[in-house]
């Protein structure tokens, strides 16, 4: 069963978020909470664990806790790395196959099957017996999201027989991805029925909507929009089903209904309730992640108003740009660009204006640059807002260096995301005028959301925030460029805005990139021959080694059932 920190998390998160349902959770210290059996367990404890494990599935954890044997990434950062939203950096290899071997996803796999799904299977009969139908609805919604995201990354996975508590099923079989999607739609419909029910009691801790079930129903319909968009290439009814939800208006249209996880940042340990990207990077030794040179260059050269919220610069100068090359801190600043970078016109190694990051696939080890490289800003991880202070992050004794302390968000499904999906579907149907309007609407909503995070960094000089005129000018330029582009050019522009706008969410951009092949403008791998792009992930070692019904894939080039393309052109 769950560790004690699950219950501490419930208390810390509940009180930090000032939820009206917050109450003290009493633990019977005569029973070890690590070994509770179903008849000793509280349904609310299970639902708290399910919700927390859900966000760990997406964003991982900064330290060893829960179902993660080590501080590890969730699916979001993997998707962001593959789509150049974050830097794909492996100290030992640039090629995809070596970087995403079978052991990479062991923790994520365990978190889903031994954590989320097993807890749902254990909780559901207890909730049914107690008449707690809305607890079940939330669990069904989460299960539908989680299991379809597993399909999106791995393809066919165990499901129908997975996490069966009855004896006899030791080696669950793989279910076809298309079948799992069909079962997920059924789960969503069942969740909506339960959201509309009148239970004996509501959950003590609903970390998403605080027991507002009109919002839960809008989120459920928005999840359907996401899945219809994802499967549009293989489902002839996807567009019509998508449009019927849009016509109903019963989906997430306003930012106040956004489905996101709010990190309370009340603790760094037992459990760490800060945004994981903050916990991993805002240390006394500086950043751990590298920011993507491709993304930073795109933001900087287009005067994107989000750049100071997304990226915090610790240094105003980068070797090779404003200052001489430095072999110790940026070895590639002394090297010549690879020929395919030169021929393609891609930036290499360094950018001006202090945007110190890495190219896609750079595997040149880790130099002493933790307090020099650019890092996560105030959105979405609640790092620092970039006000040209150029001071090192998270320095002991300097409260100004901690930014928003990690009280950020995991954006899961939002109003602007729904608009981006609508823009894609409009393009598919040939309505470029509507696609243009929806693109404008999506970018405007997303920028407005990002700007609302500026106040999380209480010590920042907010005079550096963009003006409303600068924001309007940027949006107009995006729309005008889209309107005047060819159809392939329109897909590239939409694709760039998806990668920028979904920052912090890597699952949907990774799906978009494989589904559309756009944008074709992304920086290629620094290695000229990095092998096949990761169109699906290898099965984790923990699954292949323990389940006789799971055989490892022959290749990472195996597509997901909804991907009938030839794969992205940029490797």
What best-fitting shape do the alpha-carbon axes yield?
A: globular
How many alpha or pi helices? 19
Strand content range: under 5%
Helix content: 40-55%
Radius of gyration: 23 Å
Distance between the amino and carboxyl termini? 42 Å
Low-confidence sequence ranges: 1-36
Mind describing the biggest β-sheet? 2 strands, antiparallel
User: How many E strands?
Assistant: 6
Account of the protein in words:
There is one protein chain. The protein has helices at 4-16, 43-59, 75-82, 96-99, 106-130, 133-154, 177-195, 213-230, 238-248, 276-281, 293-301, 307-310, 339-344, 415-428, 432-451, 468-483, 487-501, 507-516, 541-544, and strands at 157-158, 174-175, 259-262, 311-312, 375-376, 409-413. The chain has 571 residues and is mainly α. The strands form three sheets. Strands 1-2 form a two-stranded antiparallel sheet. The protein has a two-stranded antiparallel sheet with strand order 3-6. A two-stranded antiparallel ribbon has the order 4-5. α1 (4-16) crosses α2 (43-59), α2 runs antiparallel to α5 and α6 (133-154) runs parallel beside α8.
């Amino acid at each position: 069963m769950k560790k004690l920190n699950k219950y501490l998390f419930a208390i810390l998160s509940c009180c930090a978020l000032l939820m009206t349902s917050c109450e003290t959770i009493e633990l019977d210290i005569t029973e070890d909470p690590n070994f509770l059996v179903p008849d000793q367990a509280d349904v609310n404890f299970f639902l708290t664990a399910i919700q927390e494990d859900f966000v760990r599935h997406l964003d991982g954890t900064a330290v060893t806790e829960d179902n993660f044997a080590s501080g590890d990434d969730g699916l979001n950062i993997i998707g962001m790395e593959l789509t150049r939203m974050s830097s794909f950096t492996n100290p030992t290899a640039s090629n995809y196959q070596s970087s995403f071997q079978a052991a990479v996803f062991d923790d994520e796999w365990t978190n889903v099957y031994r954590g989320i799904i097993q807890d749902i299977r254990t909780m559901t009969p207890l909730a049914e017996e107690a008449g707690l139908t809305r607890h079940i609805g939330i669990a069904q919604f989460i299960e539908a999201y989680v299991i379809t995201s597993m399909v999106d990354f791995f393809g066919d996975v165990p499901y129908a027989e997975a996490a069966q508590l009855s004896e006899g099923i030791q080696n669950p079989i793989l279910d076809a991805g298309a079948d799992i999607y069909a079962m997920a739609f059924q789960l969503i419909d069942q969740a909506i029925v339960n959201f509309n029910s009148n239970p004996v009691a509501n959950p003590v801790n609903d970390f998403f909507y605080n027991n507002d079930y009109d919002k839960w129903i809008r989120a459920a319909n928005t999840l359907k929009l996401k899945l219809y968009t994802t499967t549009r290439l293989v489902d002839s009814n996807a567009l019509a089903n998508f449009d019927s939800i849009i016509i109903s208006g019963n989906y997430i249209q306003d930012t106040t209904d956004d489905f996101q996880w709010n990190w309370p940042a009340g603790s760094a340990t037992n459990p760490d309730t800060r945004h994981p990207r903050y916990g991993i990077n805002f240390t006394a030794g500086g950043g751990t992640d590298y920011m993507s040179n491709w993304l930073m260059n795109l933001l900087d050269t287009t005067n994107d108003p989000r750049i100071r919220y997304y990226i915090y610069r610790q240094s105003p100068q980068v070797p090779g740009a404003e200052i001489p090359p430095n072999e110790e801190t940026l070895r590639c600043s002394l090297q010549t660009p690879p020929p395919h970078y030169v021929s393609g016109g891609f930036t290499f190694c360094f950018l001006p204006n202090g945007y110190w990051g890495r190219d896609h696939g750079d595997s040149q080890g880790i130099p002493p640059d933790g307090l020099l490289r650019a890092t996560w800003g105030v959105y979405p991880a609640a790092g620092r807002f970039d006000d040209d202070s150029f001071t090192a992050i998270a320095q002991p004794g300097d409260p100004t260096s901690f930014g928003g302390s990690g009280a950020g968000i995991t954006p899961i499904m939002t109003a602007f995301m729904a608009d981006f999906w609508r823009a894609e579907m409009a393009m598919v149907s040939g309505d470029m005028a509507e696609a243009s309007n929806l693109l404008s609407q999506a970018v405007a909503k997303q920028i407005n959301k990002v700007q609302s995070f500026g106040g999380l960094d209480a010590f920042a000089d907010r005079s550096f925030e963009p003006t409303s005129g600068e924001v309007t000018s940027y949006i107009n330029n995006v729309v005008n460029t889209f309107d005047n582009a060819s159809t392939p050019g329109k897909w590239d522009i939409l694709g760039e805005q998806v990668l920028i706008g979904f920052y912090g969410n890597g699952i949907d951009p990774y799906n978009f990139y494989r589904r559309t092949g756009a944008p074709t403008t992304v920086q290629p791998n620094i290695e000229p021959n990095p092998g096949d792009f990761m169109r699906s992930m290898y099965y984790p070692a923990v699954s292949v080694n323990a389940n006789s019904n799971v055989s490892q894939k022959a290749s990472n080039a195996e597509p997901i059932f909804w991907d009938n393309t030839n794969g992205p052109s940029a490797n």
